[in-house]
Specification:
6 strands, six-stranded parallel β-sheet, alpha/beta, about 45% helix, Rossmann fold, single chain, about 230 residues
Length: about 230
Amino acid sequence: MMTSQFDSLDLAPFQAVIFDMDGTLLDTESVFRTIVFEVCTELGFEMTDDVHLSMVGGSHERTNQLLVEAYGVSFPYTLFDERCRVIMRERSHGGVPIKAGALELVTDLQARGIPTAVATSSRKPHAHNHLGAAGLLDMFQTIVTRDDVINPKPHPEPYLTAARRLGIEPTQCLALEDSHSGVRAAHAAGMQTIMVPDLVHPSEDIRALGIAVMESLTHVHHAAFRRS
């Protein structure tokens, strides 16, 4: 069950907000899902919902591991990865869709002087291309990608790196995530964490790590500033 009543959110004061990218800021996970199924079929493998959902929010390395576990060492991951990226670039030429409430929330945070960052498992070219295509690239003080850390999510390093770059203590940051690995990473970094599910629903252990599960960034926006 998601938090739908704004007053039920037990949110402590925060000095910065750190966003995941795909599935949280950008409505790209459903697009990528279609591509993953298409490319697997093209390569002679049958993608399943379970395998796909296990990939959501994961790093390049984790996705490679999951696909080899699912399909065996003969799975051509390098080719799969390249094909997915080429098709994703082609389909993002016309712009990248933004999740409901994302622009309004980020704009309001800017107006309030609250610094923001992105912490994503995507590599830098992908992240900058998609944020640029969505018109969001210049709205964040820093963008932490897979290329900026040794340990990707669910390790806390991406979130700790973002907080360090912002000059804000992790405990003073609010993290917004759509995936299990992202929630684990933000929580391990010591941040207040809200899950805004996209394709993956929270399990009980994931629900216990965050302060709330909310329907959209619009709900987060209203809840965060309801007393302003």
